[in-house]
Amino acid sequence: MLKTSLMPLAAICTTLLAGTVMAQTTTPATDNTVKLQNAISLDRATYFPGEEAVLTLSARNTQRTPLEVPEPFAATNGCFDLSKLASNGAFVPLSSRPVCPFRPMEPAGAKTLFDPGEERRATVTGDAIWQNADSQSSGPGTGYYQVAYRNSTASAVFHIVVPHLETAAAVRLHDIAYNDSNGRAVRAAAYMHVFSVRWFNQSFLCVARSSSLQDKAIVTDLAGNVLSVNVPYRRVAVLPNPVVSIKATANQQDGLAITWTDSTGASQMVLVPSGAPGAPGAGGIEVGLDSTFEKVASGASLQLHARVAGPGNGAVRWSVALGPGAPGGAPTGTVNATGRYEAPAEVNAPYPVIVVAQSLADSSKSALGVVSLQPQSHMTMVAPSDTAHTLTPVAAFSLSEAVARPPAVQ
Fold first, then answer.
1. Cα(1)–Cα(43) distance, rounded to whole angstroms?
2. DSSP character for 255?
3. pLDDT, tens digit, for every residue of 352-410?
4. 403 within some domain
5. Residue 28 reports pLDDT greater than 80
């Protein structure tokens, strides 16, 4: 979850489809690492402060022969770089060392064999990534962030936004009972948090992932904008009309019945079983891009490529918008239906634009690319012969529901 922006709760990482440890191979296993096809996907592209996030790392053998490689989901190999997009269109590292969130599951140096065409996946919660970084332990603020896998070019970008708190309620549950270090019985009050936030003309009904000892867990500024949420939570419903009141009751099993009234006076109810909503299940749509950041010269064009996994329509809708810190009214360039991006003819100083690939099968799923636009003079280099050569631009992307904010965010 995105702790006070990127991810609450203790670091939890679950390795899926663990590999088989092998002994020897005729080709050095480390050399084979680059032959694996890696991809990163996030359960959503835009997050609210404190919201749970789940990252999935996949590794696939595209070769026709088996590949022996170092275990990709081991604590020493499953490492990432975390960075934030600056106003000049560059990603700035947030940690001086790699972020390695996976728990030690295999002995150091363990190797595994991937059969031809075999794919494996591992998931890790966002807080596991953030809490393993060595800076800003309170979590990132608003903006665009990139998480990149160190063993390949796989990466994803997410966007943290600040919604407006509409209404909230804390529901008293059965007390938490335990014995302290001296063996004495202790009882503590427990609460579940239910609240609604408004962002981009939609309301989002949110529920804590687990009980808390706090009866007030949401921090806002004087205008009611959410600054932090001190309990892990997930969205359970997306509503078109503003929510004006909310009420929740708990049954004997601590399941919740949540009732809310919107601005039209209509009331609705949803039931949330004990344990609250869990991590998103497998089988949904995933959207990614082959790259998440590139510098592009003014007047240049490039072809963007989106990856869509899951059932249904694999097509995407492309759009582009100015990124954070870009000059007001600056040209964004254009992107057509096939993902062909055309940079503006003139760029006086570097600035970012956000290219979005939104799933047609599920409009809540999208990937976006950060394209750092550069003046032509910034995209040239001089060869020993003193002849100027223009660098060939390549695409840039990232997982996030961009400044343009696609129509439906869920």
1. 10
2. -
3. 999 999 999 998 899 988 999 999 875 544 444 443 333 333 333 332 333 334 444 44
4. no
5. no
Q: Are strands 301-303 and 334-335 parallel, antiparallel or unpaired?
A: unpaired
Instruction: Kindly compute the dihedral angle of the four CA atoms of residues 104, 106, 108, 110, in this order, to the nearest 10 degrees.
Output: -150
At residue 262's C-alpha, the angle toward residues 258 and 263, to 5°, is: 165
Instruction: Kindly provide the b/e burial profile for residues 322-340, where b requires at least 16 CB atoms within 10 angstroms of the residue's own CB.
Output: bbbebeeebbbbebeeebe
Bigger pLDDT: 21 vs 292: 292
Write out the E strands in 150-190: 155-160, 164-172, 176-179, 185-188
Do 148 and 168 fall within a single domain?
A: no
**155 and 14 within one domain:** yes
Residue 277 lies in a domain: no
Q: What is the mean pLDDT of residues 151-161?
A: 91
State how many domains the chain has: 3
94 and 176 together in one domain: no
In a domain, 216, yes or no: yes
**Which residue carries 């996994």 as its tokens?**
309
Determine the Cα–Cα distance for residues 119 and 399; give it in Å rounded to an integer: 21
Q: How many CB atoms lie within 10 A of CB 267?
A: 11
Q: Do 228 and 346 belong to one domain?
A: no
CATH of the domain at 30: 2.60.40.10
Contact 287, 367 (CB under 8 A): yes
Q: What whole-number distance in Å separates Cα of residue 295 and Cα of residue 370?
A: 9
pLDDT at residue 132, rounded to an integer: 60
Decide if pLDDT at 219 tops 60.
yes
Are residues 89 and 135 part of one domain?
A: yes
Gap between the Cα atoms of 296 and 394, Å rounded: 7
Give the count of beta carbons closer than 10 Å to the beta carbon of residue 270. Answer: 15
Q: What are phi and psi of 378, to 5 degrees?
A: -85, -10
* Phi-psi group of 289: left, alpha or beta (phi > 0 → left; psi -120 to 50 → alpha; rest → beta): beta
> Could you tell me the residue range of the domain that residue 348 belongs to?
286-390
**At 283, is the pLDDT very low, low, confident or very high (cuts 50, 70, 90)?**
low
Q: Which uninterrupted H or E stretch holds 121?
A: strand 119-125
Are both 217 and 258 inside the same structural domain?
Answer: yes
**What does the mean pLDDT of the chain come to?**
80
Strand partners, 293: 370
402 within a domain of the structure (yes/no): no
Higher pLDDT, 312 or 60: 60
| Interval 272-300 mean pLDDT | 77
